[in-house]
Amino acid sequence: MPGREYDRVLDTAADQHGYITTEQARTLGIQADTIRKMAARDTLERVSWGVYRVPTFPQSPFAQYMEACLWPAGAMGVISHESALAIRELSDVNPSKVHLTVPKHFRVRREIPRHLVVHNADLADEELASVEGVPTTTVRRAIEDCHRQHLGPALLRQAIEEGQRQGYLRADDAQKLRELTLG
Length: 183
What we know:
By secondary structure, the chain is of the alpha+beta class.
């Protein structure tokens, strides 16, 4: 039967769609060996290096995004680019991979999973947001990033209009984005 350590893991995982990292467990006073033992007993499920999921936690539509944010050991990733639009359902964009931004200085020292695209950028606080507890870039930053990556004008227009309609963009910001992205 799970004990106090499991309860601490569960408290953290509950705020992260069922996920926890070994680093987060360590800050809770739980040794990495204990986490590995929990995984061996199927109390936790190892999903990638240093990232675990509580298998009894209900699957969430945001789970893949949270898992992606926790994947870069040593830095928290932020959902960005097309994925930041998709998580908010702001356009018909349907990225085949989850786009993640990590700090410029952060270097991935292991193979990047095929379902991720990792971008490096130093984001200002005003470029950060959250969707259901998942760290994301703001809608404005996501649209700017998509424009730099040459996302089609129809999808950009749709994201701007929907972003303004849903209250993510003020009228003046929406107009500036139209001028930037649509000429």
